[in-house]
Amino acid sequence: MVLIKFENSHEKVAMNLLSFMSSEQKLNVLHHTIQLYEENPNWHLYFWKLKENFVGAIGIELNEHTFNVHHASVHPDFRNEGIGHIMVEHVQRLHEPLAMSATPETKDFLAKCWEHQFSG
Ligand SMILES: CC(C)(COP(=O)(O)OP(=O)(O)OC[C@H]1O[C@@H](n2cnc3c(N)ncnc32)[C@H](O)[C@@H]1OP(=O)(O)O)[C@@H](O)C(=O)NCCC(=O)NCCS
């Protein structure tokens, strides 16, 4: 199980998964977000795949010393199984030594993941 990088052929699955975030409820906002991940070299979207299903997505923006997690979403059928935590852990490892930062929308869940890491 690894993070799979977004490609243009994943547009539909990206829209589906990102639409679970409250900031992405408007279709024009969602389209703009997908476009950012397609066109901006600092924006990266990854998927988590279980068997043949794309079950989660995590999207970040790279900065000079940090990366900001803008999106984290898991399909409702697969929630509370640890996929969110594992995506956060993998994205962190992938972008070391950059420090992870959050948006107002992702901060509570990321704080939960950090707590979990530090409590072993
Ligand atoms: C947030 C989300 C990605 C978590 O995915 P997940 O695979 O269910 O997460 P995990 O199984 O790794 O962890 C579940 C734990 O996170 C908690 N959690 C879920 N959403 C949370 C949030 N927004 N803030 C804080 N904790 C949250 C759950 O209550 C659960 O807690 P518990 O372990 O004490 O029971 C998923 O709930 C989701 O897609 N939500 C809709 C999208 C969204 O709102 N994203 C913004 C937050 S990143």
From TrEMBL:
Secretion signal span: none
UniProt-listed Pfam families: Acetyltransf_1 (PF00583)
Residues annotated as domain N-acetyltransferase: 4-120
One GO molecular-function entry: acyltransferase activity
Keyword field: Acyltransferase, Transferase
EC number(s) reported in the record: 2.3.1.-
CDD domains named in the record: NAT_SF
EC supergroup of this enzyme: transferase
Designated name of the protein: GNAT family N-acetyltransferase
